[in-house]
Design goal:
globular; Rieske Iron-sulfur Protein
Length: about 280
């Protein structure tokens, strides 16, 4: 568990206001509400505004940009309290305000870590079972093991290996890891579906939308800097979560884009937009 970190002196944060502090690689908004102090993630998941710049009233901070409201005690979104941003433990030690902030782990990274741990446990259990089970009349040779490992495939499967892999199976072939491989929008959506759909469907629309908005907020923060590698990652994350929520609600992004933009600007119908600058296509 992470240690507590001192961020400010008691009384340094005015009543009903907040201040943002970098802690453990994250920006944390610490608020004073009456005699108490609270800490939540500083980034508004809507567009990345600093929640510390918002005003606290009756235990709720309103984002200064678009007035999204969050409870400072637990990070709950007031419009749907089942969805929350991160909140952190706060304590007072002498005249110091201290917060405990663990490193941020996305739900997918946490799931991957849990899956790896589960696979390791299964492997250990299998090893223990094989050591505990003795079949004196049956000897499993290396050749038998090799046969067992190939029984799942057929000659027809070998023929398929010569075909060009579809985008949806790029993760299995390893091509998704190469920088030069290309992927279509629909192919990327299929890839996200293959990797994450069961978890995404269980999370539902509201939870998935909240994560999409948090990624948009992180992209907004990245756009303020000049780290091109970080920008690539954040653009990819936003696109991945957009594909995710499209999967959850059953929308084919490739089809949707083609229908709306395939013939040109939706507003004027031209391939080079002629709409007035003040109008949104």
């Amino acid at each position: 568990m992470s240690d507590f970190t001192t961020v400010a002196k008691v009384g340094a944060i005015p009543e009903g206001q907040g201040q943002a502090f970098p802690v453990n690689g994250r920006m944390v908004a610490v608020f004073r509400d009456g005699a108490q102090y609270f800490a939540i993630d500083d980034f508004c998941p809507h567009m990345g505004a600093s929640l510390a710049a918002g005003h606290v009233e009756e235990g709720v901070v309103a984002c200064p940009w678009h007035l999204w409201r969050f409870r400072v005690c637990d990070g709950a979104w007031c419009d749907n309290p089942s969805i929350k941003i991160d909140h952190f433990d706060v304590r007072i030690e002498g005249d110091e305000i201290q917060v405990r902030v663990p490193p941020k782990v996305s739900p997918r990274a946490a799931a991957d870590q849990a899956g790896q741990a589960n696979q390791a446990d299964q492997a250990d259990n299998a090893d223990q079972a094989s050591e505990a089970t003795v079949e004196p009349t049956v000897e499993l040779t290396d050749g038998a093991a090799e046969c067992d490992s190939t029984d799942e495939s057929s000659p027809d499967d070998d023929d398929d290996d010569d075909d060009e892999p579809e985008p949806a199976v790029l993760a299995e072939t390893g091509q998704s890891a190469t920088r030069n491989s290309a992927i279509t929008l629909s192919g990327f959506q299929q890839l996200i579906h293959r990797m994450y759909y069961d978890k995404d469907d269980a999370r539902g629309v509201d939870g998935t939308f909240m994560w999409l908005m948090e990624e948009v907020g992180e992209l907004a923060a990245a756009l303020r800097g000049d780290d091109i590698d970080n920008l690539r990652e954040e653009f990819a994350d936003v696109l991945a979560w957009l594909a995710t929520i499209a999967n959850v609600v059953g929308v084919d992004l490739g089809e949707a884009v083609a229908l709306k933009y395939g013939a040109g600007c939706p507003g004027c119908g031209q391939l080079e937009c002629e709409c007035p600058d003040a109008e949104k296509p």
